[in-house]
Every structure is written in C-alpha cells, then in structure tokens.
Amino acid sequence: MPSNTVAIWILCLTFVVFLLLRFPVALVLAISSMATLWYLQMPIVVVAQQIIQGINVFSLLAIPFFIMTGQLLGAGGLANRIVDFANVFVGRWPGGLSIVNSVACMLFGNLSGSAVADTSAIGSVMIPIMKKKGYPAEYAVGLTISSAIQGVVVPPSHNLVLYSIVASSVIGGISIAKLFAAGIVPGLLLLVTLCTVGVVISIKNKYPRGDATERRKIPMIILNGLLSFTPAVIILGSILTGLATATEAGALAVVYSFFLGFVVYRELKPKHLWPVLVRTFRTVLMVFFLIGASGAFGYAMTILRLPDLITQGFLQISSNPIVILLMINVLLLLLGGPMDMAPMIVILTPILLPVCMKLGMDPIQFGLVLIFNAGMGLLTPPVGTVLFVGCAIGKVSVKAGTKAMMPFFLAMIVVLLLITYVPQFTMWLPQFVK
Fold it and tell me: At 295, is the secondary structure helix, strand, or coil?
C-alpha cells in the first residue's frame, strides 16, 4: 500500500535533486510528478493529461501577444523615444538623469513587462549617457537594474497574467483586470521611492543634471512619447473598461505596435521581424511548457494534500499573521536568488496562496507580493538575470553592481513591506473594476 508520506518525500527529493543538477525547471516538474504517480501506482499518462489540460486555457493566448508587443516596440526604436520624452520633463531637475532613468524604465517596462528587456533597452541608452555625463558606471548600473523591476509589477505585465492563470487553478478564478489595477499603485510607489533615493544620492555626490532639450524639438519628442504609450493604453483601457479580454487587447496591441514601428517610426524593418518572432516563440514555449508541467506537479501536490500540510506547518510555527507574512517574504527573497520569475510563480502559487488566504490576505494582494519578491530576486545572485545583464552593459563587475544597487534594494524592501501589510496599496483600485 503506497504511503502518502513516502510519496511526498519522492516528490520533494526528486524536485530538489534534479534542480541541483541544473535540469530545466519544467522538465524537473514533469519528472517529479511522474516519479510520484508511479510510486502511487497511478497511470503515468495522467501527467501528460495534466500538462495538456494546464495549457488548454484561452486566456494563455494573452501572454504571447504581450511578449510580442514588447519585442516589436523594442525593435521599433521605442527606448530612445521614451528616454527623450522623460528628459524633457525631469532631465534638468537635481539628479535629473537618475529620474530620467527610473521614469524611462517604468514607461518601457509598462510596455514590455520584462525586467530583462527593460534593462537591455533602457540600459543600452541610459548607462552610456550617464557615464558620459560623469556618473560612476556602477551607480548607473545599480539604478538601471533596480528601476527595471518596475516592469514586472506595472500593468500590462505578462507575469500578472501568468499568476492569474496559475492562481485560477487553486481558487477557481481571478480577474486579470483587477490584477492590472492592483499593480498601478505599487508601481507608482516604487517609482517615487527609486527616484527619491536616486536624487538623494545624486545631490550628495554632486552628480550633474541632464542637458536641456532644444525647444524646437520638444513638440515632436512629446508626440513620439505619447504615441509610444498608446499600446499600453489600448491594453489597459480595453481590459479595465471591459471592452475586450486580455487576449483580444493583446492582439490589438500587436497590430498597433507593428504599425507604429513599421509605418510611423519606420525603424522596424522586415529584417527585424524574424528575430522578433524567434525571441517571442522561445519565451512563449518556455512559459507554456512550464505552465503545463506545473499543472501536473500541482495535481500531484493536490492528491497528497501538500498545500494543506504546508499551511498547517506555518500556522504551527506562529499564529501571528505579521510573523507568518514576514517569514513568507524572507522565503521568497531567498528563493528569488536561485529561481527565475516564471518558475517561482508557477511553483509557489499553489503552495503559498492557501497559506496567505488562511491569514485573510486577498489573492490579488498575494499576487503582487509574490511577483514583487520574484522581481527582486532577479537582482540577486546566483541567477540574478537582470543584475548580470546590467553589469555586462555597463562593463562593471557583479560585485560593484551589487554594491551600487543595495540602497535601491533596501528601498524596494520598504515598498514590499508596505504592499504586504497595508492592503489598501493593492486593493484600493481593484474595487472600482468589475
């Protein structure tokens, strides 16, 4: 007679061992699920069924559309126009280039939904400019990679869509529109916090301001900047007003982004389309395989009642919600180092969401807490994708980039604690969305 305890050990040990052997996370999830079901004397074909069922979701189509929108806009010269737009309004302020960097990262991240893409696009423009104006290279890198994390929180983020789909398998349904609304205030709070820290450091070290923009160029810069935001307006506006689903809004944004880059800006050339499609499909295939495999893994956890056992374990440690939420945040920050964002979302949502709901936290608020933590993990070794990309662009060591990033990282922890313990930051706007 198979034992549930032994099955849990098989599930956990196979997961940890194959992960340490650096197998792809999606493959690890599938292998762990098959080993566990084999021990439980269940048909292995169930794993395949759960994988197919996991990706047989219409709303998943929103993810490739959002990713392709960001790729098209990145190839169409959006980054330079956003930097110029931000510089017109805040470039001459004290610490102006720091503010331009943070604002540009927020605006581009709003469209790409990817911290890595944000770092690559804005970092390639802003880091050389800041170095040329006298800012230390490590400071420019630290500021850029920290500011790039805004893209994972600020809607329309495909990470929020991914969380919505995974959370729906746990609680039966969660609104993408409400998740998007919930990300607005935390995103703006993070922007203000990063700008404040950047200005304080810039004034303290007497870093220079940005250059004034020629008046004759300002109208065209503002027009191009406003045009660059219209894909986000299309997505957010149509979803929040209920005029379109996330998938339909994403499809519209792809068509409009292609028109913007190919016809209006004329920087998107036919030769760019194949690389755009390849990058999009690679990301989509990875995410879809991960979602499908997580469905099989989640099925194994469900029949073993593992989420319930983990919830009981947390509650046995402490009955104080403040303590448990602090423990969960510490756990997520620690896991964010070795794990990438998408695996964190698909693996930890079924485990930790029931715990937080037991404490009275809304699933929407938990989604923002999880994704914020996962985003911060992109800044920390050993994976630290955003950290490594930023250091490569700025040509600084990982150690120097990490040290320069720490003041911003500490500020991000303050924002994380606020959205964890003050529900109004995430739940105020969603109440106005149907």
Answer: helix
Full DSSP string of 361-399: --HHHHHHHHHHHHHHHTTSTTT-HHHHHHHHHHT--HH
The rounded distance, in Å, linking the Cα atoms of 316 and 99 is 45
Question: Is the CB of residue 391 less than 8 Å from the CB of residue 351?
Answer: no
Q: What angle do CA 363, 372, 104 make, to 5 degrees?
A: 130
Q: Which of 51, 127, 85, 97 is nearest to 288 (CA)?
A: 51
* pLDDT for res 365: 94
Over the stretch 86-122, which tens digit does the pLDDT of each residue have?
777 766 677 777 888 888 888 777 666 677 777 877 7
Q: Is 396 left (phi over 0), alpha (psi -120 to 50) or beta?
A: beta
Packed helices 4-20 and 25-39: angle between N→C axes, nearest 10 degrees: 150
Helices (H), 149-269: 150-153, 158-171, 176-204, 218-240, 246-259
Tally of helices (H runs) and strands (E runs) in the chain: 21, 0
Neighbours of 312 (CB within 10 A): 12
The amino acid at residue 109 is G
**Cα separation of 101 and 127, whole Å?**
9
Instruction: Taking residues 292-297, report their average pLDDT.
Output: 80
Q: In this predicted model, which residue has the larger pLDDT, 294 or 364? A: 364
Q: Does residue 156 have a cis peptide bond before it, meaning omega lies within 30 degrees of 0? A: yes
Three-state DSSP class for 423?
Answer: coil
Half-sphere exposure of residue 429: CA atoms within 13 angstroms, side-chain side: 19
Q: Where are the domains of the chain?
A: 1-42, 60-432
Cβ atoms < 10 Å from Cβ of 185:
20
Q: What is the pTM of this model?
A: 0.82
For residue 262, pLDDT over 70 is answered with yes
CA 137 to mean position of chain CA atoms: 25
Q: Tokens in use for 318?
A: 């402490």
Is the separation of the CB atoms in 181 and 428 below 8 Å? no
Tell me how far apart the alpha carbons of residues 64 and 283 are, in angstroms, rounded to a whole number.
8
Inform me whether the pLDDT recorded for 382 exceeds 70. Answer: no
Helix axes 115-132, 137-148, angle to 10 degrees: 150
- Residue 282, class by beta-carbon neighbours within 10 Å (0-12 exposed, 13-18 middle, 19+ buried)? exposed
Contact 175, 246 (CB under 8 A): no
CA distance 265 to 260: 6
